[in-house]
Amino acid sequence: MRSKKSVLVLPLLLLFASMTGACQRDSERKTDAVSPHEEAFMNEIFFAGSSTLAPTISQLADSFTNKYRTWDKVDSSMPPEEIQISVSTGGSGAGARAVLDRTANFGMLARAARETEREALAHYQEATIGIDALLIAVPTSSSLAENRTNIKKEEVQRIFSGKISLWSELDSHLPGEEIVLLVRDVGGGAHGVFQRAIMDTIDVSERAVQVPSMSGLVNRLVDNRRAIGYASYGVAREHRDDLVPFTLDGIEPSPENIVSGSYPIARPLVLVWDGDLSAPEQVFLDYLMSEEGTAVISGMGFLPVH
Predict the structure, then answer these.
(1) Are residues 234 and 139 in the same domain?
(2) In CATH, what number is assigned to the domain containing residue 66?
(3) Which of 40, 102, 113, 236 is 20–30 Å from 253 (CA)?
(4) What is the SS3 assignment for 163?
(5) Residue 7: inside a domain, yes or no?
(6) Residue 249 domain boundaries
(7) pLDDT at 114
(8) What distance lies between CA 238 and its chain's CA centroid?
């Protein structure tokens, strides 16, 4: 005859297995819920990262939103919910981290993605939407602008490393005034591009003023006749009456030279994300890459990739 204890074992085991399965399914649902590309319809798209790229994405978002207003006007299979596209800055590195932390759908990078950033995302994806370049420049009021149109890479290294600190040390025809160095902060994509293309293993001087955005850097450059810095091609075009960009080792920063790679400080404008795109993300990305989107990118002063 079986004991009463043995009769209870099977029901208890079945109950335990049922509870374990339920917990596992609940855990799977919670994991799915934090995906930035979840199946439930999300009407808002978040971009984060490069301050160089942010104004262009904002302009594209405005154009897209004004054209369609609600998602069903873009694609009838989507619900009639209001289109919401948000853009925040913080630098290219912050954009890659935002995708990793799942606080943004897309990261904006004004440089090529680093290998560590690619490896950090389980299903790394990217799209290059334009090409930019950094132009070595001074304000129109600068004495250097009055004396030359070309600057050598070796001279740029000497200036930005702090090996020379007075303009007269660069050229005896220039006044003995202190050189003011303006650069992007280390979190900005321009910082890494300039370091790799120009400085190589040489450190930028600690005297250099680090500015947290490209527009801020150019504004400070325009206002200081003793300053030298670098300006994004697009931002430099906006300030063409206030800045004098130099040819670098005789190579002009023209669209043809930038696209061909002849001009050495070119950089891609990249969007990165993790995994498959949701329907709203895909249609907006398609818009960015369309003829209409490309026209906006060109209008903002950048070079299209096609």
Answers:
(1) yes
(2) 3.40.190.10
(3) 113
(4) coil
(5) no
(6) 133-266
(7) 95
(8) 19
CB of 174 within 8 A of CB of 143? yes
Query: At what angle are helices 54-68 and 279-289 packed, to 10 degrees?
Result: 110
In this prediction, residues 266-293 reach a mean pLDDT of 96
DSSP-H helix ranges across the chain:
4-33, 54-68, 71-74, 92-100, 115-120, 143-147, 153-161, 167-170, 189-194, 214-222, 233-238, 255-260, 279-289, 291-299
What torsion do the CA atoms of 31, 37, 38, 40 make, to the nearest 10 degrees?
160
Question: How sure is the predictor about 304, in pLDDT bands with cuts at 50, 70 and 90?
Answer: confident
Same domain (yes/no): 108, 169? no
- Residue 151 reports pLDDT greater than 70: yes
Question: In angstroms, rounded to a whole number, what is the distance separating the alpha carbons of residues 257 and 162?
Answer: 29
CA atoms within 13 A on the CB side of 263: 25
pTM of the model: 0.79
Q: Which residue has the tokens 């994991």?
A: 31
**Which one, of 56, 46, 36, lies nearest residue 86 by Cα?**
46
**Sign of torsion, CA 128 129 131 132?**
negative
Residue 240 in domain: yes
For 170-222, the pLDDT digits (tens) are 999 999 999 999 999 998 899 999 999 999 999 999 999 999 999 999 999 99
Q: What are phi and psi of 139, to 5 degrees?
A: -70, 160
CB 90 within 8 A of CB 227: no
139 is a domain residue: yes
Same domain (yes/no): 273, 225: no
* Backbone torsion region of residue 161, taken as left when φ is above 0, otherwise alpha when ψ lies between -120 and 50, otherwise beta: alpha
Predicted confidence band of residue 254 (pLDDT cuts 50, 70, 90): very high
41-52 per-position pLDDT tens digit:
888 999 999 998
pLDDT at residue 173, as a whole number: 92
User: Do 172 and 211 sit in the same domain of this protein?
Assistant: yes
